Amino acid sequence: MSRNTKNQSRVHDLFSSLLGAFAAFCLITSPWNVDTEGPDPFYKGPLIFPIIVLSMMIVASLPACLRLISPPNGNSWRLDGEGYPGKTLVVLIFLIIMLVSLNLIGLEVSAFAFLAASLLVLGHRTPVKLIVLPLIMTGLIVLIFKHFLGVFFPTPLIAEWLWE
Fold it and tell me: N or C, fewer C-beta in 10 Å, the chain?
């Protein structure tokens, strides 16, 4: 069921549009930012994941861009709710920490910790949602990217430090 956007803030649309524009910039410049040399085919190379994620971000921002260009009546430039998107910013910080920790502690631990911490911040408190759901999603991520697509993830630094 679609949400009523009559009283929605234009600030959200502006922010989503800016994220989409940044994703488009990153997508356009990704061939120069990611080393694509190697024997792997394109779908197994390091550029496939940024292309998928950035394309999804661009597609997700298109409705906000359209609303920003031609807003429905009643939209204003106010923030909804308490006026501060605190939970969203915390999840964004968790995502940045996850990206940094991929090289440090590995894909599996980083993905699980990110999903569990994000669900906890968003108010999900049951063990099924805090443990089982992140385990399933982490398993799917590993299965799809490491095994099905064969995307290379480096050995975590902590493994090199402990087993050197």
Answer: N
